[in-house]
């Protein structure tokens, strides 16, 4: 007949388990726990002398292993659970524990208590029950077959089918309805209205006689065309208004004109603009970047023509600018026009047997020359000698890439 486990059996079970926990560092806690339980059952049928002898041997081996084992052995969840249970049912467990401190076992107990109540009070799924998958598929199918149906219409159809569902739920599964198409960008907007935009501005130029001349420029934005240029030494509002009348006919004036708030654009200029049906758009004071197109044209006039000349009077300046404008309109390319000229033209290959890439066309100085020719009719152009661009001979010119003329 089996005897109930005595105090010696419990001590034997504890020592046996501690020894096996020290030797098994891999963490097979469940196997160790089972072996300890089987050892406890086996000790129930053994004599007291045998148990005391085995407890002594186990304690000696445990002391040897504690001297050689690492400071902190690794314990699994099953090991911690066993010590928590022993601390509850065995009053003298603090004296028998060796691999950990009693405070550690107490901390395990508190942590297990907290985990238990966290699991007990965990948030459960709340709210309305989920809609069946076949009903969600039916809602989407009805919406795809009838794009003009909204949530109220589909909800009514579902009620006629005997499906009880809220209208807000139907709207949720319909998704967000597509709104208005996105509006066009500012670049597209300005491109659509660029034919109705123009700019006017003045720039000053000193002469060889220490006078200051004022140049009035009128520019259309669509193809960067300079529609009017004039020069004066004494600009007035009446003179400026007359230049605008000469720039456009009454039926070809643009809708908007961009200018700076200069006092030269007086009441007479504003009256002429209103009579022609033109609306003035004023830039901020000292903000030339708000009128960029005409500023770029003025910069091109200075860099490519006027900075290379000595101006004597109004007549010479007007002649030089008028002779430069055909080059600007017919030959000068612009990045904003997709590298085309303000007056569109097709590409023209070099004529004759001379090619820029041919070895026979190379002269003594370079492989290709930039040749300047007067912008004149073909019969008059053939009578003049075309000078090289290395010595700029006149303001009326256009540029071609080719070989030196014979």
Describe this structure in words.
This protein has 406 residues and is of the alpha/beta class. It folds into 4 domains: 7-119, no CATH class; 133-174; 188-337, Ribonuclease H-like superfamily/Ribonuclease H (Nucleotidyltransferase, domain 5, 2-Layer Sandwich); 359-402, no CATH class. The chain has helices at 7-23, 29-43, 48-68, 77-89, 93-96, 102-120, 133-145, 151-160, 167-174, 186-193, 237-247, 267-275, 292-304, 314-330, 378-381; strands at 197-206, 212-220, 225-232, 256-259, 279-282, 369-373, 398-402. It is elongated, with a radius of gyration of 50 Å. Helices cover 45% and strands 11% of the residues. The chain is built from 15 helices and 7 strands. Mean pLDDT is 77; it is low at 1-5 and 356-406. A 5-stranded mixed β-sheet has the order 3-2-1-4-5, with helices on both faces. The chain has a two-stranded antiparallel ribbon with strand order 6-7. α8 (151-160) packs across α9 (167-174).
